[in-house]
Specification:
373 residues, alpha/beta, Lyase, Ornithine Decarboxylase, Chain A, domain 1
């Protein structure tokens, strides 16, 4: 079927755009010899893992369930990082993961005898904030719980380590990576030559049109040539950037000084980052408020008064039954959605390069009920 024929609400993965992103990432791999992993916290649609696995090296997880998913569905390199691990999980993770990164030396000390055959790393905090717009995503903020600072780095644990890991970026260009690497070298450079790998984490918007790939590759080569390190990158957004839609239908139009469209999709339930970041998601064939003749506020049928997606303008008057297509909805939407108010979860469909869609997952009442007891 075509996208306009899908039952709403529905996430649609644009397979052509997904593969276009993957080809860009593969060029970086081929040009530098680095390894690139899918950060599943951003995109976990495992129906696409066979395609993704043709272009990149594997997956990275934030805990046991993601680690299992990466192992079962992609079966390539499998890395994990968590701010803290439960003992029962570690026993499973060492069977699933090639690399295991710890957030503190106390956790490493606790589990050091369980890690035979696993490449072990420690997360560092270079104390170099490059975030300006989204403080919630700044792991280098004062008092951060994420990563070991240079002041608290324990050299005596170096024999247990194979690498260091940092993750400080969010939707950023390679100039911020360069700034961060300068701080990493200044504060941790004396340790790097004793290790075999460096994981530069995620947040690299490599597939964005204005991203400076040449500088990224220069940064990678510098760390390889200076310290003899194998370099890992863990992009999540870059893999599926602009590779998905959320299709929704107008249920009603209400007026109270503002014309508001009530949709069968919800910011709070189906695209939580709209409220959490916050941001106004792109919408196909729309404009800024007042730019086109008809301006509406887009909201949902939940009871949350603040469940508002944003204000948009259109070329024509909108009516119940009209379809709207939110863009860039592959990342941080499906992995974060919820059933607040008993809202149904959107179906998941894949659109091929010819624009033909197939539904790969549908959800119903049992999916809502089984989360509870």
């Amino acid at each position: 079927m075509r996208i306009e024929e899908l039952k709403t609400p529905c996430y649609v993965i644009d397979e052509g755009k997904l593969e276009e992103n993957l080809k860009i990432l593969k060029r970086v791999k081929d040009n530098t010899g680095c390894s690139i992993l899918l950060a599943q916290k951003a995109f976990s649609c495992y129906a696409e893992y066979p395609l993704i696995g043709r272009y990149i090296d594997g997956t990275t997880a934030s805990g046991l369930y993601e680690a299992r998913l990466g192992k079962e569905e992609m079966g390539l390199e499998n890395h994990v990082f968590s701010p803290a691990y439960r003992e029962a999980d570690v026993k499973e993770l060492v069977k699933l993961c090639d690399h295991m990164v710890f957030n503190s030396f106390s956790q490493l000390e606790k589990y050091k005898d369980c890690l035979t055959g696993t490449s072990v790393g420690i997360r560092i905090n270079p104390e170099c904030s490059t975030q300006e717009d989204h403080a919630i995503y700044d792991p280098c903020a004062p008092g951060s719980r994420l990563g070991v600072t240079a002041e608290h780095f324990k050299e005596e644990w170096l024999p247990y380590l194979s690498g260091l890991h940092f993750h400080t970026l969010c939707e950023q260009n390679s100039d911020d990576l360069k700034k961060t690497l300068d701080a990493v070298e200044e504060k941790f450079g004396t340790y790097l030559k004793e290790l075999s790998w460096l994981n530069m984490g995620g947040g690299h918007h490599i597939t964005r049109p204005d991203y400076d790939i040449e500088l990224l590759e220069t940064c990678i080569r510098h760390m390889q040539e200076t310290y003899g390190l194998h370099i890992y990158l863990e992009p999540g957004e870059a893999v599926a950037l602009n590779a998905g839609y959320l299709v929704t239908e107008v249920l009603d139009v209400v007026e109270n000084g503002i014309h508001t469209l009530i949709l069968d999709a919800s910011a709070a339930c189906h695209m939580p980052d709209v409220l959490e970041m916050p941001y106004r998601p792109p919408l196909k064939d729309s404009g800024e408020p007042g730019e086109k003749p008809y301006t509406y506020r887009l909201s949902s049928c939940t009871c949350l008064a603040g469940d508002v997606i944003g204000d948009y303008s259109f070329d024509r008057e909108m009516k119940p039954g009209d379809k709207l297509y939110f863009m860039d909805m592959a990342i941080y939407s499906m992995v974060k959605n919820n059933t607040f108010n008993g809202m149904p979860l959107p179906s998941i469909a894949i659109m091929d390069k010819n624009g033909d869609c197939r539904v790969v997952k549908e959800f119903g009442y049992e999916d809502f009920k089984n989360r509870l007891s």
